[in-house]
Amino acid sequence: MEPNMYRGTGGECIDGSVGVMANQGCPGEGSDTRVWGWATCWLQRQGSWHSTTPPACLVVGPWYVAWPPFIALQLPIAHRWAEWLHRKPLPWRPSWYLLARAGARWDPNWGGYIFPEAALKVVDHVIHVP
Question: Strands, DSSP E only, in 1-130?
Answer without folding.
Answer: 4-7, 13-16, 49-50, 56-60, 63-67, 70-77, 96-107, 112-123
